Amino acid sequence: MEPRAAVFDVDGTLVDTNHLHVVTWWEAFRQAGHTVPMHAVLRAVGLGSSDLIAHLLGEDRDRGRDAQLSAAHKALYGQYFDRLPALPGAGELLRRLHRDGWTVVLATSASGAELGALRRAIDADEAIRATASSDDVQEGKPAPEPVEHALELAGVPAERAVFVGDTVWDMRAGARAGVRCLGVLCGGIPRADLTQAGAEAVYADPAELLAHLGDSPLT
């Protein structure tokens, strides 16, 4: 059998962190004097820090304060590193795909200590071949580069890969990279938004995808 790659986003897809990001970004913005609604932050989660700030504050913001905002979010979010909760079925899904012969790669904007905390939460390192983190790419999602780099790490072409994510940014990145895309609802983004952005199918969470693996593109 030719090699196949299962590429996964992490935040909101495998680990239940999106609302932690919402609260900590909201607080970082508040401390800097910005009023940003939490629902707007949720819609922006999944973008890299610089892109998220630009998306929420606009191009006419004081860009000299971006690094301070990003550092404040990182410090606030870092308080949760020792108790990040995996989503139902996350580790089991990765281990099952690994047993079935899929090359499992993570594609995430997280890096460093944050990425380490996420991997500990998933608890399936034996199933994960590699990780494409924000340190490895010039442009984050929705650019295709994170997914394309994950495919390079897997040594698999786009036509033999599936990308699983929870945001419209994930779906757009996967579609631009030419891979089949699956969405999950556990990140808080509506089904219709994921479908419109390119999701071929949408599942509640990793556990539901695992339960329906036989009739999914990951069969």
From TrEMBL:
Pfam families: Hydrolase (PF00702)
Molecular function, one GO term: hydrolase activity
Cross-referenced InterPro entries: HAD-like_hydrolase_sf, HAD-like_sf, HAD-SF_hydro_IA, HAD_sf, PGP-like_dom2
Keywords: Hydrolase
Gene3D superfamilies the UniProt entry points to: HAD superfamily/HAD-like (3.40.50.1000), Putative phosphatase, domain 2 (1.10.150.240)
PANTHER family on file: BLL8046 PROTEIN (PTHR43434:SF16), PHOSPHOGLYCOLATE PHOSPHATASE (PTHR43434)
Protein name: HAD family hydrolase
Organism of provenance: Streptomyces graminearus
